[in-house]
Design a protein that fits this description.
Keywords: Coiled coil. This protein has about 300 residues and is of the alpha+beta class. It starts with 6 loop residues before the first helix and ends in a 7-residue tail after the last helix. It has three domains: about 130 residues; about 90 residues; about 70 residues, Aspartate Aminotransferase, domain 1 (Alpha-Beta Complex). The chain has ten helices and five strands. The protein has a five-stranded antiparallel beta sheet, with helices on one face.
């Protein structure tokens, strides 16, 4: 284990909310279980990496994940010691304001759990984040797997909401871990939410699904088109290329463009790539549109401010 879980804090937090004895080492064991799973995923990703630098990058993300998760768990338990449950102390003179601050702190700590989850997603996806040859079927396979995973998350959120709607509790809900359950229940108590996952949260995941589907469609279209570089007759020395092998739309110039042309390129998010000898950005519909705008502005510039043919 890379980072320590404060077992004393975990025990005290448990005693604040339960009359049952705390099982020594249980918080550490749960942390270690999640870390072991992350390490298994990291090893699978590293097997796909082609360079030592890429493997080192995965190790760095894994270490940050372990550190972030440990911080979130320790913070969760620390907040848990602030105020006992009403089941422990009873309703007489119950510190309502202190409980409110505790709920707010738990809600804020959700961001740390989310950061850990995002890091784990980054590790999963890293093997396919380098420039990908769109003709390689593995690239589309990776995106489709990601789409399947996000759709699974979407279905999970809806299933948890359905279980809660039918049972008015998360107790006994299948496929929900103790950390997720505690985080949801803390937020629901604090904000009087009527369901575990709110409409906007489910909507955000749905948008992510739509973005991935759009990316898959764009990659499939780029592979089908297999466009070749086109020298522009009305702009001598300029070549336009929808490069499906790197998934970049490229503008290639004979020599270094003038400062005003470079300014136009940069203002449309084009970046110079020495290895390609081109100014480029991602090959998407937005990227193609930006390239057309750049070329139109270059034509106006070379025609003294009037749109050329």
């Amino acid at each position: 284990m890379s980072y320590e879980i404060n077992e004393d804090m975990a025990r005290r937090a448990h005693e604040m909310r339960s009359t049952r004895d705390y099982v020594e080492g249980s918080a550490t064991a749960e942390y270690q279980r999640q870390v072991d799973e992350a390490r298994r995923i990291a090893e699978e990703v590293k097997a796909q990496c082609k360079t030592t630098a890429q493997r080192n990058r995965v190790d760095g993300m894994l270490d940050k994940y372990e550190r972030t998760l440990a911080f979130a768990i320790n913070r969760d338990n620390e907040v848990g010691t602030w105020c006992p449950s009403i089941l422990i102390v009873g309703g007489a003179n119950f510190p309502v304001e202190k409980k409110k601050r505790q709920g707010e702190a738990w809600s804020a700590n959700l961001m740390n759990y989310n950061k850990a989850a995002e890091l784990l997603d980054s590790i999963r996806d890293y093997g396919h984040n380098a420039p990908i040859n769109s003709r390689d079927p593995e690239a589309l396979t990776a995106l489709r797997k990601k789409l399947e995973r996000v759709k699974g998350q979407h279905e999970h959120m809806k299933a948890v909401n359905l279980f809660y709607r039918e049972n008015d509790t998360l107790d006994g809900c299948p496929d929900i871990g103790p950390l997720e359950k505690a985080a949801i229940e803390g937020r629901m108590r604090q904000w009087n939410d009527r369901k575990p996952y709110l409409t906007w949260q489910i909507g955000n995941v749905r948008k992510q699904i739509q973005q991935i589907e759009k990316r898959i469609a764009e990659m499939e279209a780029a592979v089908q088109e297999n466009a070749q570089p086109v020298a522009l007759d009305d702009l001598p020395g300029v070549t336009y290329h929808e490069n499906s092998s790197t998934m970049r739309v490229q503008l290639i110039f004979e020599g270094k463009p003038e400062p005003d042309i470079r300014a136009i390129l940069k203002s449309h998010a084009f970046k110079w790539c020495p290895s390609q000898g081109a100014w480029q950005r991602q090959l998407t519909e937005n990227g193609k549109r930006a390239a057309r705008e750049v070329l139109a502005q270059i034509r106006m510039l070379q025609n003294g401010g009037e749109q050329g043919a």
